[in-house]
Amino acid sequence: MIRKVSTYLMFTGQAAEALALYTDVFPESEASVRDAPVYMADWRLAGHDVMLVDSPNVHDFTFTPSMSLFVDFGDAAALDAAFARLSEGGQVMMPVDNYGFSQRFAWVADRFGVSWQLNLP
């Protein structure tokens, strides 16, 4: 029987910095850190569990935008603020706009390469 499913984000030395950004952007989230022998953190955002890990190995890959965290917001100001912070040093794939399927939507990869879809249903 499955006990738990979490999104897994692997970094190479930037997991703590990423977690600091994410907990700042989403202050209602919770985090706990396990720092031995490699940095690992559990982060909970709106009931969703995310693991952040620093891999001690260098890999031939990074994040792919096909894996993303999809976040529904309750108001436009909160979405706009998150978009502004997450897009700093990142890549905007779809700027904030009405795309028909959503009154306000944006898709951005943050400076760590993690992909975020931000939505106002």
UniProtKB/TrEMBL annotation:
Residues 4-118 form the PhnB-like domain. CDD domains: PhnB_like (cd06588). Keywords: Methyltransferase, Transferase, Ubiquinone. One of its GO terms (molecular function) is methyltransferase activity. GO terms for biological process: methylation. It comes from Hyphomonas jannaschiana VP2. It comes from the Bacteria. This is 3-demethylubiquinone-9 3-methyltransferase. The lineage of its organism: Bacteria, Pseudomonadati, Pseudomonadota, Alphaproteobacteria, Hyphomonadales.
